[in-house]
Known about the structure:
single chain; alpha/beta; Rossmann fold; about 35% helix; about 25% strand
Amino acid sequence: MTDRSALQTQLEQGIAALGLTLPTEAVPRLLDYLALLQRWNATYNLTAIREPIEMVTRHLLDSLAILPYVQGDTLADLGTGPGLPGIPLAIAAPGRQVLLVDSNGKKVRFLREAIRSLKLEGVRAVQSRVEEVEGHFDCITARAFASLADMLGWGGHLLAPGGTWLAMKGKTPDDEFAGVPPTFAVQAIHALAVPGLGAAERHLVVLRHAKA
């Protein structure tokens, strides 16, 4: 069992390496979230990653790496699983309305418990297929849960005019760009230097409406 102080050191060093400045209470709240995830994971198998030190890298820092690209007052995190990247983003930049979407009941039960116990204001979790969600959001995040074509086909209706879609991927998904619907355009591709992950392991694809 890795002690909390070691996890805190790793997290703080990673945040500094990403060049981020977070609210004072963000680090302890992120560690509280990690502890809750660990506890539930033992019973409900919410994530394949079980080592806390690896969770800091692959869950927390990986999520926080996209923080500079998140925009607007409303965010929907599609296929959020146990709340990634949605919960770390909500903790790191409070004040935004965040909707966490997943079709898996046990994951949504965990999300609701995390929202309650971490007192995450403005954050909601809904159990739903992406295509059945309603509303418009300034920013949409999706962490490698489907191809770009499927993501946009299922959830494209949720992106507000002028909004930003942030698709988190491993290697650059060159074979997926041809499938992007004509109503959307790839605006940028960023290589993400996630502390603790090998180079070229994480990329962010930024999409907008084609007319934007």
